[in-house]
Design a protein that fits this description.
The chain is of the alpha/beta class. Helix content is 44%, strand content 15%. The protein folds into 2 domains: 8-177 and 354-381, Glycogen Phosphorylase B (Rossmann fold); 195-340, Glycogen Phosphorylase B (Rossmann fold, 3-Layer(aba) Sandwich), CATH 3.40.50. The longest helix has 19 residues, at 73-91. Its EC number is 5.1.3.14.
Length: 385
């Protein structure tokens, strides 16, 4: 029997990437007359999260403000479990939707599972094959897949990963990545470099955008990355390096002493979403240990060197938009120099991670699931067919 009651769907975010990737879904749910939507923020990344909420016009209905209370993974996980339990008891949602692989996503999903509330997992099925890399994300997303009711896989490869783990095939819906939805929404507003970057770089020089902050990059890996950035700047006098430095003290204590003496390496404070996307669009090359950048850059045709030992986004490698180079100094310098020597790239190819319709597919699948209709989404409507 099809239920006539409107379902209550609680979406949960705690970090800047989660908010960016959930923005289109929150908008889609909020505009649908068939769903009552509630946005819950854990505040895992407080300052950066507030920037995204403001720029993307998102307003949390529930804000747990946890980051100032706890600072380590176990403390954060325990606090999210405790406070989300109270939220779930108060809201009584029909489904909790989490995104990706953060501690917020895992703990919120687990809290829902403990309460018998179905869980929808956005960006399900990404796998690096190394439980410690990225850490703790690889473990988090595998745990979520073990109890999720609906798995919103961004690509066919992600679907195959889930099927290889014996996840119910009927629960897997290939939607595309919601980050492409958000990027398409804001890309028309990007016409020039942000002021905070433009005032630092010399007009006419090529920009190399660098991000490096992941936990597995700390220590020797980050030291090698910094040395590579130094050598790239020294070897290419027509290049200006823009390096937004993460607020984490571990990162800052390594990056600033290693690079602050170079005129053409600009160590800037973290950019807000629009500033970062604008810089990414006009960059000649990106060096990153980020997962999201691998998904976003193909929209602009900007090549990416991935400074990690593994990646869960093989689609970018297959499409030729990214290259996995590890964290060895000479490997990074060699590949960066080779890519900087190639002719200007074209943005004509499609993004292998999405087409801007992921949120619509998720909404349709949610409504079909709630109404008891199978399949939750016809395969001909999957992304990347």
């Amino acid at each position: 029997m099809v239920s006539e009651r409107i379902p209550l769907v609680a979406t949960v975010v705690g970090t800047r990437p989660e908010a960016i990737k959930m923005a289109s879904l929150c908008q889609c749910l909020g505009e649908s007359p068939c769903v009552k939507a509630v946005l819950v923020s854990t505040g895992q990344h407080r300052t950066q999260l507030d920037q995204v909420f403001s720029r993307l016009k998102l307003t949390p209905d529930v804000d747990l403000k946890l980051m100032h209370k706890v600072g380590n993974l176990n403390g954060l996980c325990g606090k999210v479990l405790e406070e989300m339990d109270a939220v779930l008891e108060n809201l009584g949602p029909d489904m909790v939707v989490v995104q990706g692989d953060t501690t917020t996503a895992f703990a919120s999903g687990l809290a829902a599972f403990h309460r018998g509330v179905p869980v929808g997992h956005v960006e399900a099925g990404l796998r690096s094959g190394d439980i410690m890399n990225p850490y703790p994300e690889e473990a988090n997303r595998k745990f979520i897949s073990s109890f999720a009711t609906l798995n919103f896989a961004p690509t066919r490869q992600a679907r195959r990963n889930l099927e290889g783990e014996q996840v119910d095939p009927e629960s897997i819906i290939v939607t595309g990545n919601t980050v492409v939805d958000t990027l398409q929404r804001v890309s028309s507003q990007i016409t020039e470099l942000p002021v905070c970057v433009a005032r630092r770089v010399v007009p006419g020089r090529r920009i190399v955008l660098v991000t490096a902050h992941r936990r597995e990059s700390w220590g020797a890996s980050l030291a090698r990355i910094c040395l590579a950035v130094r050598k790239i700047a020294q070897h290419h006098p027509d290049v200006e390096v823009v390096f937004p430095v993460h607020k984490n003290p571990v990162v800052r204590q390594m990056v600033f002493p290693a690079l602050s003496d170079l005129d053409r390496v600009h160590l800037v404070e973290p950019l807000d979403y629009f500033e970062f996307v604008s810089t990414m669009k006009f960059a000649a090359l990106i060096l990153t240990d980020s997962g999201g950048v691998q998904e976003e850059a193909p929209t602009f045709g900007t090549p990416v060197l991935v400074m990690r030992e593994t990646t869960e986004r093989s689609e970018a490698m297959e499409a030729g938009t990214s290259l996995l180079v590890g964290t060895g100094t000479e490997d990074i310098v060699l590949r960066a120099s080779a890519w900087l020597a190639t002719p200007p790239r074209s943005s004509g190819q499609s993004n292998p991670f999405g087409d801007g319709m992921a949120a619509q597919r998720i909404l349709k699948a949610l409504l079909n699931w709630y109404g008891g209709r199978r399949p939750y989404l016809d395969q001909e409507d999957f992304f990347g067919r």
